[in-house]
Amino acid sequence: PQTVFLKDYTPPEYLIEQIELNFDLDEQHTLVRSTLSLRRNPQSQDSSAALTLLGEELQLVSIAIDGRLLMQSQYVLGEEALVVHEVPQDRPFQIVIENTINPQANTALEGLYLSSSMLCTQCEAQGFRKITWFLDRPDVMSRFKTTLTGDKSKYPVLLSNGNKVGEGELENNRHWVSWEDPFAKPCYLFALVAGQLECVADEFVTMSGRRIALEIFVEKHNVDKCDHAMQSLKNAMRWDEETYGLEYDLDLYMIVAVDHFNMGAMENKGLNVFNTKFVLARPDTATDSDYEHIEGVIGHEYFHNWSGNRVTCRDWFQLSLKEGFTVFRDQQFSGDRTSPAVKRIEDVNALRTRQFAEDAGPLAHPIRPEAYIEINNFYTLTVYEKGAEVVRMLHTLLGAAGFRKGCDLYFQRHDGQAVTCEDFVKALEDANGVELNQFRRWYSQAGTPVLTVSQQYDAEAQQLHLTIQQSCPPTPNQPVKASLHIPVKLGLLAADGSAAPIYCNGSSQAEITLNVTEAEQTFSFAKLPQQPVVSLLRGFSAPVTLKMERSLDELAFLLRHDSDTFNRWEAGQQLAVQVIFKLIDAIELGRPLQLEPVIVDAYRSVLLDSGGDLSYQALLLALPEESYLSGQMAIIDVEAIHQAREFVKKTLAEQLQAEFKQLYVQHHRDESGSFDAGAVGRRRLKNACLSYLSKLENADVYHIAEQQFYSARNMTDQLAALSAIVNSNHPAKARSLDSFYVQWRQEALVIDKWFTLQATSSMPNTFATVQALMKHPAFDMKTPNRVRSLIGAFSQANPLHFHAQNGEGYRFLADQVLALNTLNPQIASRMVTGLAQWRRYDAGRQGLMKQQLQRIVATEHLSKDVYEIASKSLA
Ligand code: DPP
Ligand code: ZN
């Protein structure tokens, strides 16, 4: 397969000003007629008279230029392109192509496909070429007019981008609808939907007083699960006006929820298509975190209307331009809607456990990659989450007002254009009169930088000297790294826990941002009569690993007193990390395990002091995840990590039993599950306590869990109780699982949870359960959500069993990857990543994982998607 390089970018040879699309819809035989208004691009250097249009898996019916049908000698039809030998060079011309496609056979879910009985599309990144031949690249922007024709009973609802401009009836129970999108857009933002859908409607009045119709389309049985999505959409529209001054531009905003979807959702202009998972919610079917994710994703896709659609990407290497920025925007939005402290911790936790692993492995790449074989493989945690961190650092460096000024200039300067990450940084620079040359390296350098910090206190001079060294480990094709510009937020704490003033340029401040730019730098702070405790990298001000010697007591002090909510949580995490690693050492040496009293005291204080935000308190009680701990180990010892962490959890439960129980009882209510901060916090804290208590394996706790499971009136509580039951030796385990299944068999998204819960269980026999579930009638390889809920969950969220020493987990995963390879390459390649980190394990496991990767690479008819991930993992 071919590699595409950023350095080879050239402007398109032709422009397509307008496209008129006609679809005659049918499950197996859809006829597409596409009328393209083309002209040569004056900016193109190329002088050939040929036109290359991209298209895959299409059946050509006819092609005509300016009304004349082309003969076979006038074009070449290849697997991936249609080349017309000669087209007019000196004037605009028109091409009409007719082709057919088979949506039912499309299990890859790219282009036009069938989901349940509904026809829908996914065009990002390169799905449009599976609909018709086109200049399928984001820098070709066209005005779209689309007419859909279909059977009235099967497809009563016919949707596409923009505004509805006509409709009518035809013979044989057929009808048509025409749509026109006034905004030129790249074809990856095209969408159509046809099906038997119900519409939930509302309205939003914009800041300039325009009335926007809001419509959410779902299958009939889901009409009662749209309220939260609709409210989230209105919240997002208001928030973008207030925070960025950005107003919606069309008169209509539509969202369609589909069961079969590779991604979370898609920001098609005026017609978002969503995975049902990120739309549907009712208190009894969706958990609090589902509610949060829905609001976040609805916001994300809405925010794309500016950061992505009005200003789009020049080429796919610039993906982070729209994704990193939009993730940053949705993170800000969610933080403002719920709790900024909690949201920040959740985001950093996800970044550190998952993106850091990607950045440290064979698939590491900069947020603006330089090469790809299959662009779908670059919708990564790095492009999205690290990309958002890079935008966040810009926000930190420029301040909220400066950042806003820069964004205003960016949108104003580039409205209607397809641009680059460089254009974004330039706009921020120009608006603020600063230069960000060194900062730009974040776009081109991969790997997680390491900051190593040492401190020296000079009592006589009353000075503190902080020395910060930065380094960054080698990553594929980047053995040596240049120094980055890293903003490091700092606070100092006096012995009583209060803020010690930081003297800097003559004035004193409670917090400052250090600009770390060199390989080694020393920062000095004066007028400190006593040695302060340093609180560094507040708010996780940069996506780096911080190395700094800390005693357990110092961490316990910070956990109690740090005014920075992130660093307070972080102190607790690092305290637990140190304690757990001492236990891992003991396990590896065969010594008896003992829990450090300091962590018991620290947790007791947390249990006794709510401080008001119960969600935050629950986070303070959460031990670092196994995957985070793995990231800190040179050779990952899955069993020791699990055993040590379980030991801490169980011992804390034993020693703080009364406190956990008391909190549980205090916050346990039988509530229907409204999504308000108070109720969410209560549930979160109470269920954290239940999770600890369930480690006690006693009849009393079994009873509490079962009671909560059967009486719960909201999914958060029901699922938390079931999880406590499934991850223990609870006598009613099988009965509870069965009863849950029977209760929710009609709700696909709830059944996904049922699969995941079993696939991620740490109890023995989980692998056998997973194999049995593969044969369960509700399992389906063609439904991405279901595949992720079982195969994805087992291989990516159950380290203990997936990494079984005999290699059964690896063999199983490779079997599934090969089965998925032909059905759905995008999903297949996502599953391969479970094997990518093979170098991090002991020799035995390395060999077994490698063997499966080699088996995958050696398979015939491997998709580009799977080939790229598997071969790069081995490299
Ligand atoms: N739909 C995906 C997202 O919004 C790709 N654009 O991130
Ligand atoms: Zn996005």
Provide mean pLDDT, rounded: 97
The CATH C-level class name of the domain at 1-196: Mainly Beta
State Rg: 28 Å
The end-to-end distance, rounded to whole angstroms, is: 16 Å
Oligomer: single chain
Describe the structure concisely for a colleague.
The protein has 26 helices and 33 strands. It is α+β, with helices and mostly antiparallel strands. Among the domains are: 1-196, tricorn interacting facor f3 domain (Immunoglobulin-like), CATH 2.60.40; 455-549, Immunoglobulin-like, CATH 2.60.40; 745-875, Alpha Horseshoe (Zincin-like fold).
How would you explain this protein's 3D organization?
With about 900 residues, this protein is α+β, with helices and mostly antiparallel strands. Among the domains are: about 200 residues, tricorn interacting facor f3 domain (Immunoglobulin-like, Sandwich); about 100 residues, Sandwich (Immunoglobulin-like), CATH 2.60.40; about 130 residues, Zincin-like fold, CATH 1.25.50.10. Helix content is about 40%, strand content about 20%. It has an eight-stranded mixed sheet with strand order 6-5-9-3-2-12-15-14, with no helix packed on it. It starts with a strand and ends with a helix. The model has no long low-confidence stretch (mean pLDDT about 95). Diaminopropanoic acid binds next to strand 20 and helix 2.
